[in-house]
């Protein structure tokens, strides 16, 4: 365990210097696809944050009270994915009831949160680093906020870049990947201030 690691420090590190998306490049598929529209990016970012926070805490509980005591370590990945899928299914039903427009705009990417490697990656990092329950909760929430911040920033930048005179060969995916690279360097630039690895 890492008892001396302050949960607030862990939170800020997971948002900035150890951003799950921009330093580990997990969850890139929906990040690039959905970031064309600001409203959809914001909705997906909030959904990913909610799922990441809840599933990290639940997977910690499952790890400590079911997987380890019953010797089910060989089923860890499958159990984590089942927990994630259940939470996503519940969230999908709630979003469909509360905001049908958001549900339609997220389309296939809402159920695909289940297989978003960022969410599984956070659960695995939590287990590998042997975080406590409080540390896991802050890490999951911070990683979700970091993912949401990155997708919203990319959506805002893409809105501006669409109106800019970008050379024809760089339009579309080219300028998007360059933008993501610059964003990653900017976030990692905080490494001198906060670093948790």
Describe this structure in words.
The model has no long low-confidence stretch (mean pLDDT 88). The protein is globular and about 60 Å long. The protein has 197 residues and is mostly helical. The protein has helices spanning 7-15, 28-34, 38-67, 76-98, 100-106, 117-128, 133-162, 173-188. The chain has one domain (30-192). It starts with 6 loop residues before the first helix and ends in a 9-residue tail after the last helix.
Given the helix and strand composition, which structural class is it? Answer: mainly alpha
Percentage of residues in DSSP E strands = under 5%
How far do the termini sit from each other?
13 Å
Total individual domains: 1
> Which H/E pattern describes the elements?
HHHHHHHH
Query: What is the helix fraction of residues, given as a range?
Result: 55-70%
Mean pLDDT: 88
Give the helix tally.
8
Any idea what the radius of gyration is?
A: 17 Å
- Shape summary: globular
Number of strands: 0
The stretches of 5 or more residues where confidence is low (pLDDT under 50) are none
Major pleated sheet: none
